[in-house]
Amino acid sequence: MTTFTELPLSAALQQKLAAAQFITLTPIQARAISPALEGKDVIGTAQTGTGKTLAFLIPIIEMLRTESKNEAKNGSLKNVRALVLLPTRELAMQVHEQYEQLRDKNMPKAALVIGGVAEKAQINSLRAGCEFVIATPGRLQDFITRKFADLRHVKILVLDEADRMLDMGFLPAIRRILQILPQRRQTLCYSATMEQSVAALVNDYMREPVRVALGSVLKPAESVSLEAYEVRPSEKLDVLRQLLYAEKGQTLIFTRTKRGSQRLAKELERDGFSAAMIHGDRTQSQRNAALSGFQEGRYQVLVATDVASRGLHCDDVAHVINYDLPKMAEDFIHRVGRTGRAGSLGRASTLVTGVEVLDLRNIERTLKLRIERKQINASHENDRPKRSIQNTLASRTLTRLPGEVFV
Question: Strand 210-214's sheet: what is its strand order?
Answer without folding.
Answer: 110-113, 132-135, 82-85, 156-160, 186-191, 42-46, 210-214
